[in-house]
Design a protein that fits this description.
Distance between the termini: 91 Å
Structural class: mainly alpha
Radius of gyration: 26 Å
CATH topology: c-terminal domain of poly(a) binding protein
Strand content: under 5%
Largest sheet: none
CATH class: Mainly Alpha
Number of strands: 0
Mean pLDDT: 92
CATH architecture: Orthogonal Bundle
Number of domains: 1
Shape: rod-shaped
CATH superfamily: Ribosomal protein L20, C-terminal domain
Order of helices and strands: HHHHH
Length: about 120
């Protein structure tokens, strides 16, 4: 019976890693040993950054809302406090989008927040 020298399982496993490392710089894309390390590290970065992305987007929305509020003469914290006190529940993503695309609706929310803050 002939002896199996280079099995397909081993080749398939290595090919999978090298396919994942396609586009990496230098030897990291061509040599299995270095590609394996690079792919493992990239997986760690991807896992971490899926969580970081959520933080970064929230920070972007807050910055946009704050800039739009400043243009209307109110601070971000006073605006959010006013919305909370008047039981208006709109998330920051929607508020950011509203500040960019529907300025008149955003101005009406700012006026509502200003009235609530002036009364208290």
């Amino acid at each position: 019976m002939p002896r199996a020298v280079d099995g397909t399982r081993r080749k398939d496993r290595r090919k999978k890693i090298l396919d994942q490392a396609k586009g990496y710089w230098g030897r990291r894309s061509t040599l299995f040993r270095t590609a394996k390390d690079a792919v493992a590290k990239s997986g760690q970065y991807a896992y971490r950054d899926r969580r970081v992305r959520k933080r970064e987007f929230r920070a972007l929305w807050v910055t946009r809302i704050s800039a739009a509020c400043r243009a209307e003469g109110i601070s971000y914290s006073r605006f959010m406090s006013g919305l909370r006190q008047s039981n208006i529940q709109i998330n920051r993503k929607a508020l950011s989008n509203m500040a960019i695309e529907d300025n008149s609706a955003f101005q009406s929310l700012v006026e509502t927040a200003k009235k609530v803050n002036a009364g208290s």
